[in-house]
Design brief:
Length: 484
């Protein structure tokens, strides 16, 4: 990062008139406003004309001690990124003899061997995708021709992380402010549970349902997380922001807390329906299996009966009265027939149960497939009034839903309110994919990863999304103008 911009409208004329580099015998003098990472450009074009590069101060330095103009005094070796053949010009004060070497601190942190951009490479990669340190080192070598071992990459990453990420976060905040992207009042809240080095961690997040802004996202020890903390977390996160609706999944402690925060509540419909569907699905599977078994048994029995009927065929006259085999044959057929009769009855019953199970699930999902709050309420009431017709699980489910039904239909008030919490679940999955949940061994590493992914999310899902939306609105307006 440059401490000051070399090119501004004030000094652009000076720069045009003053060279950035010049030849002097077989030496290429390069002013210290040129980035060492860009030396490759000079090498490509002039490489054969010089044997070494000497960095000099773009502005002749004045003595920090007495203020006199300093003069040249040889050069010292410099090894940015361990490159050979680069020197830095030294200056001396003619009056007090103080010396000073050309500074490259705009590009290289003091005491570091590598340019900032090289030191920050690992973080740049990490902001896109997870990579082990060894692979980061390989990528740096591939991209920049600089060989680092993975410990150095690790060291750079942890040294530069905070300033690098903070700078990116501040830049993003500026862009968001310029674009006037602000919290909408409708938010998703959710938590996810992680393990790190034997500790149970909980991650709490609130994101904006309309603009996708991340309102808050933090990790903490699970043992410190309780109802009281959640209340403080929500209160603190939403303080001073518009408060319309908070979407959550069905955890039973939420309603009381959310009331205290003075925001409307929407329960995730997807979770509600899933809560019904998951046990139903088990039942349906069981019924379908039983039906299949019954059908096969009946078929098997029928085949056996057919086989038994063949007894005595092709013989003249009825079987003799004392034919024991014949008697057994008749008895067997009778038993098989009565078993089939019983099975057919059970089959009918099971088919009915299956139909009812599927039917009630369908009806429950359909409560929400309507256009108004009133219709949804009517559908729910109709089902609820038939409560005793349903199986025990369904009854329990309906009684439970009755208590919170109003919280499941808040979304009808405004088309901007989502009816599910899917967005924040997607946010969790994108910013911390399942395969990485166990990869981070330290809280520091995990937090760093999440911070980088928040930046990526904000770029892709807040800023780009807003830009796309705005241009679509503009396009639409243009079309409207064109047609009118
Ligand atoms: Zn001096």
């Amino acid at each position: 990062m440059l401490s000051e911009k070399p090119f501004t409208t004030n000094n652009i004329n000076d720069i045009v008139n003053k060279p950035l580099y010049f030849f002097d015998d077989d030496r290429l003098n390069v002013s210290n406003i040129l980035h060492p990472d860009d030396l490759g450009f000079l090498e490509t074009y002039y490489g054969e004309y010089y044997s070494e590069i000497v960095y000099y101060e773009y502005n002749r330095p004045t003595c920090p001690k007495c203020g006199s103009s300093m003069i040249s005094n040889g050069s010292r070796q410099a090894k940015p990124n361990k490159w050979e053949g680069i020197r830095k010009k030294q200056y001396i004060c003619p009056d007090c003899k103080k010396t000073q070497v050309t500074s490259l601190e705009n590009f290289i942190k003091r005491y570091s061997n590598y340019t900032r951009s090289i030191c920050q490479k690992a973080l740049e990669y990490e902001s896109i995708s997870y990579l082990p340190y060894q692979k980061k080192a390989e990528l740096i070598e591939l991209e920049n021709g600089i060989k680092l071992n993975r410990q150095t990459v690790y060291y750079h990453e942890s040294t530069y992380a905070d300033s690098f990420i903070t700078q990116k976060e501040e830049d993003l905040q500026k862009i968001l402010k310029e674009m006037k992207i602000e919290p909408s009042g409708t938010y998703h809240y959710d938590e996810e549970y992680l393990h790190e080095n034997g500790d149970n961690i909980v991650r709490l997040a609130i994101i904006d349902a309309v603009t996708n802004l991340i309102i808050n996202d933090q990790v903490m020890l699970q043992e410190d997380f309780d109802k009281e903390f959640l209340e403080i977390f929500l209160k603190y996160s939403l303080e001073g922001l518009p408060k319309k609706v908070l979407i959550t999944d069905g955890y039973s402690a939420y309603p009381g807390i959310i009331e205290k925060i003075c925001i409307n509540h929407q329960l995730c419909i997807f979770h509600i329906i899933k809560n019904k569907r998951t046990p139903s699905f088990k039942k349906i599977r069981k019924l379908e299996k039983r039906i299949e078994t019954i059908k096969n048994t009946i078929k098997g029995n029928e085949e056996k009966i057919e086989e038994l009927k063949k007894y005595g065929k092709g013989r003249q006259g009825p079987p003799r009265k004392n034919d024991k085999k014949w008697k057994r044959n008749i008895r067997k057929r009778k038993n098989l027939n009565s078993e089939n009769k019983r099975l057919r009855k059970e089959l009918k019953q099971k088919r009915k149960e299956l139909k009812e199970q599927k039917n009630i699930d369908e009806r429950i999902s359909n409560i929400y497939n309507v256009d108004s709050r009133k219709d949804a309420k009517r559908r729910f009431n109709t089902i609820y009034n038939q409560l005793d017709q349903f199986d025990e699980d369904t009854q329990k489910f309906l009684k439970n839903l009755d208590k919170k039904f109003d919280r499941t239909i808040t979304y009808f008030r405004d088309s901007q309110i989502p009816k599910t919490n899917n967005k924040i679940e997607g946010y969790f999955k994108i910013t911390l994919p399942k395969y990485l949940k166990r990869t981070y061994r330290t809280r520091e590493g995990l937090i760093r990863w999440i911070r980088l992914q928040k930046i990526r999310w904000t770029k892709r899902n807040v800023i780009t999304y807003q830009t796309k939306n705005t241009s679509q609105i503009q396009l639409k307006n243009q079309k409207i103008k064109a047609t009118s």
